[in-house]
């Protein structure tokens, strides 16, 4: 249990998807104009990461990894399908996003109208694929740890995008040099937020 | 590249229109500083010039080929499942690039770690497939892909250049800041190696680019 909390906190603050690895930057920059839309996208990312990371963990440990197929019989013990990782992960992500969209549409129309346009966008959000690839790199011990990592990364993205959206709403009233307005200043603010987040570095949990 | 046969309009291979396809993304339509696509990898792998160069070449390859393949298939892809088809084509090409990198430049491939895989979700590639290759012939699509990837590449190299020069005093791993400067008290700016400085460097590049090109200034 302790381990799970520690992984969660690590992935929210120390290994933050946006500030430490710059994943999901495209949607981070494109959707952060207002706080409302950024909350929608952030929630959708938490949701999808929380589902796809454990799912891909199962795929990795029972199909793709070296010797992962040995449950089929001893003759499969030396099969290594890891070169298929990218294509399988992205297929799972695209399929899960589609599935989640259909389920949400069926059972909660309000949530669907809130997340609506963001869900398809998420299939090509690098934070999602990145989450699965980092999960593969870190060799988690069991599926609970992988889930905690996925949810933590999602929450980290949520914090980052809501934070920048709030700042961008305010900065409209400031005197920014004309060529820097919009995109340029957003980059620089993100850099400064990244420096702030670096203060979490080196914390042992 | 003799794709002349794919071009029934008998247009010159590098007509002014085609040249525009190649040169616009380098400046006015730059994927990074203007369209804001494919930022993730620019920031993460530009600590050294070498990784930036390998990444730029990988993206040029994947993008040129993906654009040609999708453009050849464009009449056969049902619109409903086009995203899956595009992702599959890109993922297949990225697997090829990844295996080549692992075979020939293993240490760089280790440094790039997950970011080679993340070329799949690089929004420039998807964006150009959606916006251009689905409606155009293979040769213009190829030029468009190469042009956009090159526009992406030069920003990548520029960021990598400044970060490696100021951060470690080297270029491609060779020391370029002469020793007597260090003796006079010059120090490498260790801050440039840290991730947030990539963002600020890109911010400054955007600033300079828009300053020179007033039509791009954001008036909203």
Q: Would you kindly provide a brief summary of this structure?
A:
With 205 residues, chain A is mainly alpha-helical.
Tell me how many strands of chain A there are.
0
Secondary structural class of chain A: mainly alpha
Shape of chain B: globular
pLDDT below 50 for ≥5 consecutive residues: which ranges of chain B? 1-9
Determine the oligomeric state from the structure. heterodimer
Tally of strands of chain B = 2
Note the gap between the termini of chain A. 13 Å
- pLDDT averaged over residues of chain B: 79
Largest sheet geometry of chain B = 2 strands, antiparallel
Query: β content of chain A, as a range?
Result: under 5%
Low-confidence stretches of chain A: none
Helix segment count of chain A?
9
Q: Indicate the percent of residues in helices of chain A.
A: 55-70%
Structural class of chain B: mainly alpha
Strand fraction of chain B: under 5%
**Largest interface by Cβ-Cβ < 8 Å:** A-B, 48 and 49 residues
The Rg value of chain B, from CA coordinates, equals 19 Å
- Determine the mean pLDDT of chain A: 82
* Number of individual domains of chain A: 1
Shape field of chain A: globular
Describe the main β-sheet of chain A briefly: none
